[in-house]
Specification:
Strand content of chain A: over 45%
Number of helices of chain A: 2
Distance between the termini of chain A: 46 Å
Number of helices of chain B: 5
Helix content of chain A: 25-40%
Helix content of chain B: under 10%
Structural class of chain B: mainly beta
Number of strands of chain A: 6
Largest interface: A-B, 26 and 32 residues
Structural class of chain A: alpha+beta
Distance between the termini of chain B: 41 Å
Oligomer: heterodimer
Radius of gyration of chain B: 26 Å
Number of strands of chain B: 44
Shape of chain B: globular
Radius of gyration of chain A: 20 Å
Chain lengths: ~90, ~750
């Protein structure tokens, strides 16, 4: 009985995914109805995640290429752009 | 005295004044005597007269029972003073319901052999009876039977019932469809507690987990009067597993693995019954990764494609406690459910095609868009039994917190909390052996509140008040059952907005009348009923983006109530080795509310604008079912059912007609590794050409599923189940898949293994 209980507890623990509030983020621009990834920003958690999603990201220089190195349909000029986090691509 | 009427036997023994006086004296001096009376008896084979070993004797009132010994003998402590209902079940015998009052001598219960197991008991229609004697179109199925070949979720399992379908978003979100109607038109009740979970949304799934649920009863159409407004499509009644047998305890644990979405499902339960007290606690957790679509190459493990963000997970804690004293039985139930559903079908591509939604890799990490749902269910039920009367009173509370994260991980786009407080009281009076009357009242107060930081207010803050009352007259004359009744409902809807508020009341008077005749070999039934559904506030006041469905919705505050008129006919023949059922119906719905595209696009969100519209609609069709059990091969079952549905108008999301065939082989044996059954299922979905103007037709497709169940002889009982769904790994898109719009296929081949341990 004791072994069974330990086994069941182990199964339950293994099954549970760790819970956290972190996500990978990137700066994004919407050009002609499509989203383009401008820059990978890395992982943000909790308050920092909330903050960067709310405030967006400031682009310092004009961008002609996406984060993957592809050409953008039109340049993105310096200024504040949206930050998208936790998307499955 | 014994009377046999529709297989319900009444035992009355107080037939002398002397005995009555004796009981009175005993009552005064020994109160304990009444509620500790032992009922005992024997279950025997009606043909041979021999005892039936391990028959289940189950008390419907207290939800527990006992098991007969190897000679068929059993005894049960009579839990209440007055009449109780016993359900007797045994392998290869027909179920039997008997009503038992005070008893002097042993109760001999005779069971008839049955190669085809016809009937489950029904409790959702205000009294307990076997399915064939119902004057309603109602089906009762054990969840275990529906999962003979395991399905990945509860709605998929229910879709094995004729006329029931799954309106799905991947394998995590399913909505039951009854005869073409779903969402707000299907009322879900769990042990009598009405479940409300924003079911107006196409992506707001069935918020029930297959945890501690014994069986489902489905009332098709608006024929039941005891559940209130809205149920134009029908009622899904979920009945919990019974408590542990009297003075027993039970621990169960199960684990299941599915290859398609690398899913795990783990459940554990503990039950104990001691004298008048019963207790049960359950816990469960599941996790699915993104599901795999089919492949035209039959075996192509390297070329798998996964549907992006179709992952989902969830868990639940559930408990129930029951107690009885004298003529009172009380049950308190609580359940917490949590779901986290990824919402597939989301892309930022300018010109998306199906490849925008598929990927060659997958991981379980949380990504958006997604739903997070916290759902609390609490219910307190009290039953009082008197000589000719029965009163059942329930108080219920549900709180559904739905958050949809569309564009931001940290801030929910939609954040709604729907709280529902309800009461229900039902009184049943038995006039004589022929007639019963059932009267009752129900009410609920519901409030919808949007979170302070919600970015989208699709449905405004609002209150709903429901009040209803009904009366039903039931009659039983030998082979005949009749039932007729009427119901009055009113609903007021008030938005809490200061500006441009909404305050309107809706009223409805409905009736239901049914008659059935059930002999040993033939059951006929005719039922006519009406129903009404006030428009939901989302249909009245919606004006905003529903990111999960990628639509901009616009309601109409001038809508009037939907009104349904259904006629349902049932003809069933039941022979020893053959059962044939024909069940046609027609359901006319006036002022049917549906979504229609406007052809316009919202300039801010870029999403297509859909308007709510009303029209008159007629749904008609039926089910044909055959169950053949050859006399020369009692181990073989051949079952087929054909579900047909059509509409006069071109309406969206009308299910494909379906032919469902199952071959089941049962084994008997005493090996250490025992196979109980092997099943093969072939399901053919016909082409759907009856589509709404903005819909596309759906191609026919076929699925082959295989399953095996068995057990391992060990110190403790171990059951196993393994099999495969979509054996041929075909690529298909069901007409009721919400992902059809994006041409995302349904899941491909899925191999499952399940182990259950009972201590």
């Amino acid at each position: 009985m004791k072994k069974v209980a330990i086994f069941l507890a182990a199964v339950a623990v293994i099954s549970l995914n760790a819970c956290n509030n972190c996500a990978e983020c990137h700066a994004a621009a919407d050009i002609a109805g499509a989203e383009y990834e401008l820059e990978e920003l890395g992982e943000y958690c909790d308050d920092q995640l909330e903050s960067i999603e709310a405030s967006g990201y400031d682009i310092a220089d004009t961008l002609y290429l996406t984060a993957d190195g592809d050409s953008l349909p039109s340049p993105v000029y310096p200024g504040n752009v949206e930050v998208h986090c936790g998307e499955d691509h | 005295m014994q009377q046999c009427c529709n297989k319900i036997i009444y035992l009355h023994d107080i037939n002398s004044i002397k005995l009555r006086n004796c009981f009175t004296v005993i009552l005064i001096f020994s109160f304990h005597f009444f509620y500790s009376q032992i009922i005992k008896g024997k279950v025997i084979d009606n043909n041979s007269g021999s005892g039936i070993a391990f028959a289940e004797i189950f008390c419907l009132e207290t939800q527990n029972g006992t098991v007969s010994d190897v000679d068929g003998n059993w005894e049960l402590e009579n839990p209440i003073n007055f009449q109780i209902t016993l359900l007797i079940k045994a392998n290869e015998f027909d179920n039997k319901l008997i009503k038992v009052e005070n008893q002097e001598k042993d109760l001999i219960i005779k069971l008839d052999h049955s190669h085809i197991h016809l009937d489950e008991v029904i409790v959702s229609t205000s009294d307990s009876k076997l399915q064939r004697y119902s004057a309603f179109p109602v089906e009762s199925r054990k969840i275990a039977d529906l999962n003979n070949i395991e399905q990945t979720n509860l709605v998929d399992a229910m879709s094995n019932i004729p006329g029931i379908y799954n309106f799905s978003t991947g394998n995590g979100i399913g909505k039951p469809v009854i005869r073409g109607l779903s969402g707000m038109r299907v009322l879900t009740s769990q042990n009598g507690l009405r479940l409300e979970n924003q079911q107006w949304g196409a992506d707001h799934g069935f918020a029930v987990l297959n945890l501690g649920i014994d069986r489902v009863e489905i009332i098709k159409g608006p024929s039941s009067l005891i559940y209130g407004a809205d149920a134009l499509g029908g009622v899904i009644y979920l009945a919990d597993e019974p408590y542990a047998n009297l003075n027993k305890q039970e621990i169960k644990a199960s684990t299941k693995f599915e290859t398609n979405s690398m899913a795990t499902f783990n459940k554990i339960s503990y039950k104990k019954s001691k004298d008048n007290l019963r207790f049960a606690v359950y816990g469960g957790y599941f996790s699915r990764n993104n599901y795999t679509i089919g492949d035209s190459n039959l075996f192509n493990p390297s070329g798998k494609e996964f549907v992006v963000n179709s992952k989902n997970s969830g868990g639940s804690f559930k408990t129930a406690i029951g107690y009885n004293k004298n003529n009172w039985i009380t049950n308190f139930r609580y359940q917490l459910l949590y779901f986290q559903n990824g919402l597939p079908g989301h892309t930022h591509d300018a010109n998306p095609d199906v490849s925008s939604f598929l990927s060659n890799s997958r991981n379980r990490s949380y990504t958006i868009p997604a739903q997070k749902i916290f759902y609390h269910l609490a219910q307190w039920e009290n039953k009082f039994y008197f000589k000719d009367d029965e009163v059942i009173a329930q108080l219920g509370f549900t709180s559904n917190e739905l958050k949809e994260y569309g564009e931001k991980v940290s801030v929910a786009g939609i954040d709604m909390t729907l709280q529902n407080s309800s009461y229900s009281i039902r009184w049943k009076h038995n006039f004589n052996k022929y007639f019963d009357i059932v009267s009752g009242s129900q009410g609920m107060f519901q409030s919808n509140t949007n979170g302070q930081y919600a970015e989208e207010i699709l449905v405004p803050n609002s209150n709903f008040n429901d009040l209803g009352a009904y009366t039903l007259l039931k009659g039983t004359f030998n082979l005949w059952n009749i039932q007729a009744g009427a119901r009055y409902d009113q609903r007021s809807i008030t938005s809490k907005e200061d500006v441009d508020g909404f305050d309107k009341s809706f009223f409805g008077v409905n009736y239901s009348a049914g008659i059935s005749r059930s002999s040993k070999t033939l059951t006929t039934r005719l039922n006519a009923s009406t129903g009404f559904r006030p428009p939901h506030i989302s249909e009245l006041l919606a004006d905003g983006v529903h990111h999960a469905t990628m639509q901009y919705l616009v309601g109409d505050r001038n809508f009037i109530s939907e009104r349904a008129n259904q006629i349902d006919f049932y003809l069933g023949t039941h022979f020893d080795h053959l059962e044939i059922v024909i069940n046609p119906f027609i359901n006319q719905i006036n002022n049917y509310i549906y979504k229609s595209p406007t052809g316009q696009t919202d300039t801010t969100s870029g999403l297509d604008i859909f308007e709510m519209k009303q029209t008159d609609a007629v749904f008609y069709g039926g089910d044909i079912a055959i169950h053949y059990h050859p006399h020369i091969a009692h181990w073989l079952h051949l079952e087929s059912n054909l579900s047909l549905l059509s509409t006069e108008e071109s309406l969206p999301f009308i299910p494909q007609n379906r032919l469902n065939n199952v071959i089941k082989i049962e084994f008997k044996g005493e090996n250490k590794l025992k196979i109980n059954s092997l099943s093969a299922q072939y399901v053919h979905f016909f082409e759907q050409e009856n589509v709404a103007p903005y819909e596309t037709t759906s191609s026919p497709y076929q699925l082959i599923n295989l399953g095996c169940t068995g057990s391992v002889s060990a110190k403790h009982k171990i059951d196993y189940s393994l099999g495969v769904n979509n054996l041929l790994n075909i690529i298909y898109i069901d007409h009721l898949s919400r992902l059809k719009t994006y041409e995302i296929p349904n899941p491909g081949r899925n191999i499952y293994v399940k182990l259950s341990l009972t201590l």
